[in-house]
Design a protein that fits this description.
Blueprint: H1 13-20, H2 22-43, H3 48-55, H4 57-75, H5 84-102, H6 104-110, H7 121-153, H8 157-183, H9 201-227, H10 248-257, H11 261-292, H12 301-338, H13 342-374, H14 383-395, H15 397-403, H16 406-418, H17 422-450, H18 456-475
Amino acid sequence: MENGDTTQSPSPLWKIVTVAAIAAGIQFGWALQLSLLTPYVQTLGVPHTWAAFIWLCGPISGLLVQPIVGYNSDRCTSRFGRRRPFIAAGALSVCIAVFLIGFAKDIGHHAGDSLEKSTKPRAVAIFVVGFWILDVANNMLQGPCRALLADLSANNHKRMRTANGWFAFFMAVGNVLGYAAGAYSHLYKIFPFTKTKACDIYCANLKSCFTIDILLLLLVTITAITTVKEEPLTKHVEGEETKAPAPFIGEVVQAFKTLKRPMWTLLLVTCLNWISWFPFLLFDTDWMGTEVYGGKVKGNASEVKLYGDGVRAGALGLMINSIVLGLSSLALEPVGRLIGGVRNLWGIVNFILCACLASTVLITKMAEAWRQHTGHNLAHPPPNIKASALAAFGLLGIPLSVTYSIPFALASIYCSSAGGGQGLSLGVLNMSIVIPQMFVSVVSGPLDDAFGGGNLPAFVLGSIAAAVSALLALVALPNPPKQVSLSPGMGGGH
């Protein structure tokens, strides 16, 4: 199936859903990363500076890996198709990575780490290698999945939006499963081999979660690549001269040079959108523990316990967020038609994002005022404050569903209209996601310190960026060109 080929009819919906289901396996692992790996790193004795270096891996790998994989998948002439070889290799790499992460303590112990010492250098080295492989593999897997969805949509704009909506839905499913698995403290009993001399109950639960992740990812990936076939890409059309392929860097530079105004606007809106999101995605549970509950990471036993209670409440908020994300993903297509297209939809939900991030200031001030008024510095906040915070988490699932789907659908539509390669175009779009992440990683700490510490300055920056992103989406982002006719059988999905 060639990119930009309008003669092809869209594939059946079941094929799109089958490929989109891979997102559940990908996001299951991401949810485990966000909820479990930071405490796990501390049990290995990783210094703070190392931890910052490790977490910078995600944006860096996304900046480099997705464009390279996308470029090569556009040109892959394997008899298995263009995307499926990369999907299979990415899934296998994820499995290897999570095995290294989960079993880092055991491997480190067998390699000579002492159980008595707090720092375990060999386990740290294995963990770092596994963590970097995991981020590279996730980027290697996700890009070809989205490109395959665009191929299966065969330049049908509605089907592209439907496909990306299903991808966002399965991301939500993976989130819910990952957070639920991470929250269950007796999971290791299902896999008793995970508890060892070097690995305590917390470590055993982590290994059990990653074991489930491996099984889930292999299930959905094998199902997709064996049931959804691709037509191999021919090296050249008969009667045409074959051209020497351009070098990768030259191809990327040329891709930027030939971008049309709609794609540049999309990149700018996406960039601002992720400047809005990344502070909250980094510090959401810390905000609950510190600002809302008034706990401290380093304090007396009561303050540390209060912080932990807040973090767990934040994890509940993430569960609610994921449920709303999943439901919203399935409603994007009809709601978009109702309010006049994806441009209006994206603009409106970015105003919701702006309001929710701004509300964190109000919720924090309410919590601080309650503690000052009552003198209950070591008590949980009252139900109305907790409910307000959880409502903010839940409402944020609506704009998150758009962030996970609409930009990728628009990139595919703009790309197919211009006759470009889906893999490279999605890689270029990914640059507008990871560069803001690196920007926020660098500036959020100094910004918070400049205003007295806490998470609110970064959240306010995100709220302002969301408002600007919303205005740009409404004013400058063009709606996709209307297609005269849609293939029959387009019902379902949204």
